[in-house]
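ARCHIVE CARD
CATEGORY: sequence design from structure
SOURCE FIELD: tokenized fold
FIELD CONTENT:
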């Protein structure tokens, strides 16, 4: 399920986890599994991303808005 968009607030290359600041100002954490599902290799602070989530709100994928 496609969810929300925002900008990368934090990202740790080692743990592959981070946080995204949503457009409404809420900060959302994403797990390594969501980053791994993206196929991306790195995220930059301030980079625009899309967060996909499941029915209970768990972040399942972090992608760039231009990626399907």
């Amino acid at each position: 399920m496609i969810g929300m968009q925002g900008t990368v607030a934090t990202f740790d290359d080692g743990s592959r986890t981070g946080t995204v600041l949503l457009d409404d100002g809420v900060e959302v954490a994403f797990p390594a599994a969501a980053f791994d599902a993206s196929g991306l290799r790195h995220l930059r602070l301030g980079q625009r991303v899309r967060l996909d989530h499941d029915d209970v709100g768990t972040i399942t994928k972090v992608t760039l808005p231009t990626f399907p």
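CARD ANNOTATION: The chain has one domain: 2-63. The longest helix spans residues 32-36.
SHELF: design records, drawer C
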